[in-house]
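Support request from a user on the community tier.

User writes: "When I paste my structure tokens into the form, the page sometimes reloads and wipes my input. The last time it worked, I copied everything first. Here is what I submitted, just in case something in the input itself triggers the reload:"
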């Protein structure tokens, strides 16, 4: 009899990669089939021999004959088990079972349930009632394709033809066969770099998988999927989101070091750490990111005093003119809840004195002088709020001088001040400048304010005083110093006292610029935010993000390629909510919208899918979904890819590290148990950086 389908079954890749005896086991056949779903008929014995077939297992179905020539059926369908399915003779099988029980009840002298329900069926009947059906989703089709002179395994997301169901055999992949499916990346993926992230895990119960030695089938991902793209990590607290982030960070660091070794550009990683779990070792992981090496991981934290080589103060010198803009930003945030005119004036005042494009030289000089005078009284307010005034100031050439507040002051006013207060309060310099000593700061400011109130200066001295106290910067800072505005008492400098955590007298540069430089060099920078007032921490995070965006935008608009930087964010529902996403001026919103073109990758974690605006979710390329505890969040998740199929399992499976993973390069969702971040992964990262491994635990 001639073949109805000529040349059936080519494709040696199927045999070697998917269907070899040591990679897949026959478990059944197709009972019914359409373009989206299939019912697989299997038997209890076949399931037991295969180590069980849990829900969400991958299965393979093919009509090809192994070892024969090529033909039209040269393809393999990828199925995912989603439930049980009805068989055509299932009602008859149930009738056989029922009839056997009825007969046993009629003939047995003991009518108890244990005697009747536990009867031994004859082998023929037992086999007939042991067939079951599996309801499967068809995820797509594997087929061979010739590219650049070699055969590759290609995947299509649909079915372009199907045959009579009797032609199909169904296999359960295991070992390297399952690994090939779980780690599959399309051949057109650009320069994939595969790294292990965990092992295939179908179910919470793992007894049969362990007994069949199928519990540790490697899942690899293309780590380049995470670089420069948005990755969302969803799940309840303590379900492994942070562990996954650490694993991804360590893998990206290794890629960065390999790029550096081949004279490529490294990748910086900035982690906003609200709980201190990335900067410090914890019982969950047994180690920390910083263990990669002090030369590669830098930690910024409040109160750091320089005792560790890679731990630096998270703050700046409020008394340094070069850092005054950052100081003003934090002060403005602290005053923001006081809806007063003086606060609004302070927010808009200029304390830097930088030239403005298009203004004359004379105007630029006046701007600088007004800013210097404003800084004097602002320094005084900080001193009243118990900020420590530095002992020295470092000049641009690296020379250190005793700290002084320098400002332009007319000679008659300086003369009168020395006559009334005595010498040594100010140091005179060329160009009409005076430097107010740190010990005399409050006394000099008080004298200027008293002279203004008394109105007892005349001539050039009075004109000099007017030029100092008449500038916008001075007037905006004066209520903070005096705690009086328009004849009313205001909180003033007392509002500044919580900001002392930000003040680092020894700081020589704005920490934001330091952090950006570290990122450009390819280091991991952890900003430890678990200390300090919430409002201050929020402002600091936003300032740092703003600085990062500005620097990346400057590079991008100059025609150069911006450096690759990854930003890791916790509690993303507070940053990307729908209400907040309407504000195009919000720094987090701008980062979410512009990150890709600025080479900013973003890894964000949240417990609330519904708390993240749909535009952010729609542009998220990689999804890591752990346990969520309510149907509302899971319904929102179901709008993306085919996570809806996993909805009940996501709610019911509370296993730490058990996630459903969808990456850019993977064409379908993989159920994975993420590897625990620990010493082995740290040593892999250290090796990539040319560092020696950590000594064994306890050594």
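"...and here is what came back when it finally went through:"
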């Amino acid at each position: 009899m001639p073949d109805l389908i000529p040349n059936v079954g080519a494709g040696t890749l199927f045999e070697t990669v998917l269907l070899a005896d040591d990679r897949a086991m026959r478990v059944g056949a197709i009972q019914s089939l359409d373009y989206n779903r299939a019912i697989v008929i299997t038997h209890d014995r076949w399931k037991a021999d295969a180590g069980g077939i849990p829900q969400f297992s991958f299965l393979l179905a093919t009509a090809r004959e192994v070892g024969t020539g090529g033909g039209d059926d040269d393809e393999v369908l990828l199925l995912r088990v989603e439930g049980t399915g009805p068989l055509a003779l299932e009602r008859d099988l149930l009738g056989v079972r029922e009839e056997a029980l009825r007969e046993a009840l009629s003939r047995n002298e003991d009518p108890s349930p244990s005697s009747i329900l536990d009867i031994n069926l004859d082998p023929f009947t037992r086999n007939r009632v042991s067939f079951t059906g599996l309801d499967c989703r068809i995820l797509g089709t594997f087929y061979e394709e010739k590219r650049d002179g070699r055969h590759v395994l290609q995947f299509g997301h649909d079915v372009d033809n199907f045959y009579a169901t009797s032609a199909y055999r169904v296999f359960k992949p295991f070992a390297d066969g399952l690994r090939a499916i779980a780690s599959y990346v399309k051949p057109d993926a650009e320069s994939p770099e595969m790294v292990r992230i965990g092992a295939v895990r179908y179910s919470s119960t793992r007894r049969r998988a362990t007994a069949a030695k199928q519990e540790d089938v490697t899942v690899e991902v293309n780590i380049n999927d995470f670089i420069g793209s948005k990755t969302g990590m969803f799940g309840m607290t303590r379900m492994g989101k942070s562990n996954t982030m650490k694993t991804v960070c360590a893998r990206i660091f290794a890629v960065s070091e390999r790029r550096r070794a081949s004279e490529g550009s490294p990748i910086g990683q900035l982690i906003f750490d609200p709980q201190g779990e990335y900067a410090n070792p914890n019982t969950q992981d047994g180690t920390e990111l910083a263990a990669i090496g002090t030369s590669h991981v830098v930690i910024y934290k409040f109160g750091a005093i320089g005792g560790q080589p890679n731990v630096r103060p998270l703050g700046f010198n409020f008394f340094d003119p070069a850092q005054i803009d950052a100081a003003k930003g934090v002060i403005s945030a602290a005053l923001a809840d006081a809806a007063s005119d003086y606060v609004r004036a302070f927010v808009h005042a200029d304390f830097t004195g930088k030239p403005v494009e298009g203004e004359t030289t004379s105007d630029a000089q006046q701007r600088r002088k007004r800013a210097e005078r404003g800084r004097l009284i602002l320094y005084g307010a900080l001193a009243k709020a118990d900020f420590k005034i530095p002992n020295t100031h470092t000049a641009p050439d690296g020379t250190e001088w005793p700290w002084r507040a320098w400002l332009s002051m007319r000679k008659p006013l300086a003369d009168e001040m020395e006559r009334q207060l005595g010498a040594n309060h100010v140091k005179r310099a060329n160009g009409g400048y005076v430097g107010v000593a740190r010990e005399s700061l409050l006394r000099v400011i008080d004298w200027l304010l008293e002279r203004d109130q008394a109105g007892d200066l005349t001539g050039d001295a009075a004109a000099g005083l007017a030029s100092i106290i008449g500038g916008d910067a001075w007037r905006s800072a004066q209520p903070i110093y005096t705690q009086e505005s328009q004849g009313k008492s205001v909180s003033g400098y007392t509002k500044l006292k919580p900001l002392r955590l930000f003040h680092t007298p020894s700081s020589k540069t704005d920490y934001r610029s330091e952090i950006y430089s570290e990122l450009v060099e390819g280091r991991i920078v952890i900003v430890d935010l678990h200390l300090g007032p919430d409002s201050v921490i929020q402002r600091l995070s936003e300032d740092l993000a703003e600085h990062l965006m500005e620097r990346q935008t400057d590079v991008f608009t100059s025609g150069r390629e911006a450096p690759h930087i990854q930003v890791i964010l916790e509690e993303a529902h507070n940053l990307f909510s729908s209400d907040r996403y309407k504000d195009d001026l919000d720094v987090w919103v701008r980062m979410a919208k512009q990150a890709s073109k600025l080479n900013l990758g973003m890894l964000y974690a949240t417990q609330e899918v519904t708390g993240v605006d749909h535009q952010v979710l729609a542009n998220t390329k990689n999804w890591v979904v752990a346990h969520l505890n309510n149907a509302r969040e899971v319904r929102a998740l179901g709008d993306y890819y085919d996570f809806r199929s996993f909805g009940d399992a996501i709610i019911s499976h509370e296993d730490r590290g058990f996630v459903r993973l969808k990456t850019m390069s993977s064409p379908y969702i993989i159920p994975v148990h993420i590897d625990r971040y620990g010493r082995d992964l740290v040593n892999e990262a250290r090796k990539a950086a040319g560092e020696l491994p950590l000594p064994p635990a306890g050594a």
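Agent notes: The reload is a front-end session timeout and is unrelated to the input. DSSP finds 23 helices and 26 strands in the chain. The first helix runs from residue 12 to 18. Escalated to web team.
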